[in-house]
Amino acid sequence: MFNYYLRLARISILKHWGLSLLMILAIGLGIGATMTTVTVNYLMSANPIPHKSEQLYYVQLDSWDVNDPFDEGQNPPDQLTYTDSTNLMKAKKAFRQNVQAQAYAVIEPNDPEILPMIVNARANSADFFAMFDVPFIYGNAWSNQADDNKELVVVLNKETNEKIFGGKNSVGESIRIDGNVFQVVGVIDHWQPKPRFYDITTGAFNETEEIFVPFNLIAEEKVRRSGNTNCWKPSGDGFEAFLASECIWTQFWVELKTEQDKDDYLNFLNAYVEEQKQYGRFLRPIDNRLSTVTQWLENQEVVADDARMMMTMSFMFLVVCLLNTVGLLLAKFLGKAPEIGLRQALGASKSTLFFQYIIEAGCIGIAGGLLGLFFAFWGLIGIETLYGDYMQNLATLDFNMMLLAIAISFFATIIAGIYPTWRACKVQPSHQLKSQ
Amino acid sequence: MIEIGLIVRALLRNKIGALLIALQIALTMTIMVNAIFMIQDRQSQMQRDSGLDEANTFYLTNTVFGKDYNLQAEMQTDLNIIRKTPGVIDAIQINAIPLSGGGWSMALQHEPGDDKDTIGSALYMVDDHAINTLGVELIAGSNFAPEDIEWRASGQSTWPSKTIITKAFAEQLYPDNWETALGKTFYISQNQPMQVIGIMKTLQAPWNGWGGVERSMLVPFQMESQSSYYFIRTESGRRDELMPIIEKTLAERNKERIIRRVTTLEETRKRSYRRHNATNKILTTVVITLTLITGFGIVGLAIFSINRRTKQIGTRRAIGATQWQIMRYFLVENFLISCVGVVIGIAGAIALNMWLVKTFNLTPIGFELIVFGAVALFIVGQLAVLYPAKKAALIPPATATRTV
Question: What's the predicted TM-score (pTM) here?
Answer without folding.
Answer: 0.82
